[in-house]
Write a structure and sequence with these properties.
By secondary structure, the protein is mostly helical. It has ten helices and seven strands. It has two domains: 88 residues, no CATH class; 210 residues, 3-Layer(aba) Sandwich (Collagenase (Catalytic Domain)). 50% of the residues lie in helices and 9% in strands. The N terminus and C terminus are likely disordered.
Length: 320
């Protein structure tokens, strides 16, 4: 029979060794504090010590088994914090990137059998311009072989040369849209009677809104007023007839607005044309969809579609 005193001293020695061993393991590789695990280990072992006081005949094999159970428990505790971190990382929600909705496609542009980039350019222009004449265009064509004419337009048809650079393509689309709006959107009625102007054999009636523009520099479709001079037109090409005057002035107003306004300060005819476009087609608004890069030096350019400009995103357009 063992002496209780010797047994108690032996158990205390085992307890001390286990506590030191556990603390070393904790410090070596665990995220949990060594003192915390040591306390929990001691609590587990103290249960065994209390049990041993009432059963003095327990053998060393039982102590070894108890020690293994305690070590496994501590090892599970040591690994647990890492599992929690991984779980949280896996469960973290991913941020969603907002995708801006695509602008609607004007029917005539959507139906056109042309390259996607040309659809996007034309559609952006139409959406940026006032809506009152937007649906005048019914048929849009782009030719991908070099054409004699870079652009042609009528009441509802528009044809462009697709071999030109994108910047020029856009400017041409604006110019030809001027023709489209002039002939297909701004129209008078037969009961108002015929005016001095005509489109070939087709009469232009006295209540056609475009007459307010034509009358600034013209007495017929191709005859200028006697007091007109080259600088009364935004470009050399604009002085050809009423239709080119309208389309060139339209493109100049949209793409070169600042220099158009600057020239209006010193020229009554240019001022009248600027005001007509602003108040009749743009509802009193100045478009901010392009910044012209041309500089006026006392002589009008020949062709507004060849002038440099910076095109702004559609978000910058003043709502009309």
């Amino acid at each position: 029979m063992r002496s209780p005193t010797i047994l108690f001293i032996g158990l205390m020695s085992v307890l001390g060794m286990l506590s030191l061993n556990v603390q070393k393991q904790s410090l070596a590789g665990s995220e949990s504090p060594a003192s915390h695990m040591g306390i929990e280990s001691a609590s587990l072992l103290s249960m065994g010590v209390a049990h041993d006081h009432s059963h003095n005949d327990i053998d060393l094999a039982e102590h070894a088994a108890f020690e293994n159970v305690a070590k496994r428990k501590i090892e599970r505790m040591r690994r647990q914090p890492l599992r929690r971190v991984v779980t949280k990382a896996a469960a973290a929600p991913t941020s969603k990137v907002a995708v801006a909705p695509k602008p609607r496609m004007v029917a005539a542009i959507a139906a056109a059998d042309i390259q996607t980039k040309h659809k996007e350019i034309a559609n952006e222009v139409l959406l940026a311009l006032p809506s009152k004449c937007r649906d005048t265009l019914k048929n849009f064509y782009v030719k991908y072989e070099k054409q004699k004419h870079r652009g042609l337009a009528g009441k509802s048809v528009l044809i462009l040369d697709g071999t030109v650079p994108d910047e020029e393509f856009r400017a041409l689309f604006v110019h030809e849209s001027g023709h489209n709006w002039d002939l297909g959107c701004l129209q008078g009625t037969k009961d108002a009677g015929k005016s001095n102007f005509s489109d070939g054999d087709a009469a232009i009636y006295k209540n056609d809104p475009s007459l307010g523009f034509y009358n600034i520099s013209w007495i017929t479709s191709s005859v200028q007023r006697s007091n007109s001079n080259p600088e009364d037109f935004v470009s050399g090409y604009a002085s050809y007839d009423i239709f080119e005057d309208f389309a060139e002035s339209f493109a100049y107003f949209v793409l070169q607005n600042a220099v158009f306004a600057e020239r209006a300060q010193d020229n009554a005819a240019i001022a009248a044309k600027y005001i007509w476009f602003r108040d009749t087609l743009f509802n009193g608004q100045v478009p901010h969809i392009a910044s012209g890069k041309s500089v006026y030096k006392g002589k009008a350019p020949w062709d507004t579609t060849k002038l440099k400009y910076a095109w702004h995103p559609i978000q910058t357009v003043v709502q009309k």
